[in-house]
Amino acid sequence: MPKIKKVLIANRGEIALRIIRACRDMGIRTVAVYSSADKNAMHAQLADESVCIGPAPARDSYLNESAILTAALLTNADAIHPGYGFLSENADFARKVESHGIIWIGPSPDMIERMGDKVNAKQTAIKCGLPVVPGSDGAIKSLPDALKWANKIGYPVMLKAAAGGGGRGIRPVMCPDDMAEAYQVTKSEAKSGFGDDTLYMEKLLLHPRHIEFQILGDNHGNVVVFGERDCSLQRKNQKVMEECPAAILTQKQRDDMIETCKTAAKKMGYSNVGTFEFMYEDGKFYFLEMNTRLQVEHPVTEAVYGIDLVREQIRVAAGEKLGYDQSNVIPHGHAIEFRINAEDPETFIPNPGTLTQYSPSGGLGVRVDSAAYTGYTIPPTYDSMIAKLIVHAQNRTACIMRADRALDEFIIDGVKTTIPLHKRLLANSDVRKLNIDNHWLENFLAQN
Hints:
By secondary structure, the protein is an alpha+beta fold. It is about 35% helix and about 25% strand. Helix 4 runs antiparallel to helix 5 (about 110-115) and helix 12 runs antiparallel to helix 13. It is globular and about 60 Å long. The N and C termini lie far apart (about 55 Å).
């Protein structure tokens, strides 16, 4: 069984810092990589070693596979943790890592490849017993093929890029007259955005919620499911707030889906962390996609289940057994995560700049994942996230009250942030009473 002594973190910002902390807790040395724009970043300062891998643009640094592999070899790193985003779901890069005798901290390259293609992922989900949205049984090959499938499924439908993600490469089609334009535009977007113009089609759910289940497997056939997260508050298919557990579910629905996800992951032979994402409407679940990596919102699961998911990733990658089963996975309380971005809270235009004051909230049940500090300059080159505020309490009502307090305490000056938006959301009766769906936030913003 390999023992991991040094991990290179192929990422930046708060997730790089999160991984450094987990490694420190395990007595593992760390190597940070950074671009020229991040030379003063906290992850580059706190790692045991740091290597500059290129200029500011991500394609020349954090997406530069050769530079990252060279850094790993030069520093004698045993393993690479990709975090999320960037190269985390790049199967070819994962194979290159392993071909150099370095441990990849994540699912196998074959699993990343299989579940990264939306068509293959859906076919795999069906074989493994996951409920799916009615849709085409493979790729849409032509406009007549698209019309045929839409008639069979029933309008409205959704055209989706097979290689898509992050809310891109999808387009609703409400009636046959809209199909020709939607087909051409989506195909063109898929080609330019992902280098692959393959499309598939699904039934469009009008009032779904986004509910996902966190899974963890080892290399010995053991799998556990850490309950579910409700990520329905979204803008342009990007999550804004996440909760664990999904308070809308009954205990039977929760238990049934945990068992379904556990069985599916075992059939797949899944190892390391992953997330089954579902649309939920009228009491039914429909498989959406699988993320073969750590999720941005993983801290709410950690808060409720008392587990360090990054630590578990490293243990599994080193060949260790989980050492526990589903009976040991017991939830406690409720948690909510707020993504605090350097954006105008009304227009959502990114607002990079220097933080003249950064004073995060604290206290019992409050966690802040961030790499920011007073005087830190948020570069315009990358995403606009400043921090993730995670609040935990004994139930949802108490969690909302604690979150109100934590958001009021959180002081960031120098740039505009989305904290005012989160305050508005928590004050809204629909949010408090769970009268929301995936479209609620965009409708709310359009009316206010």
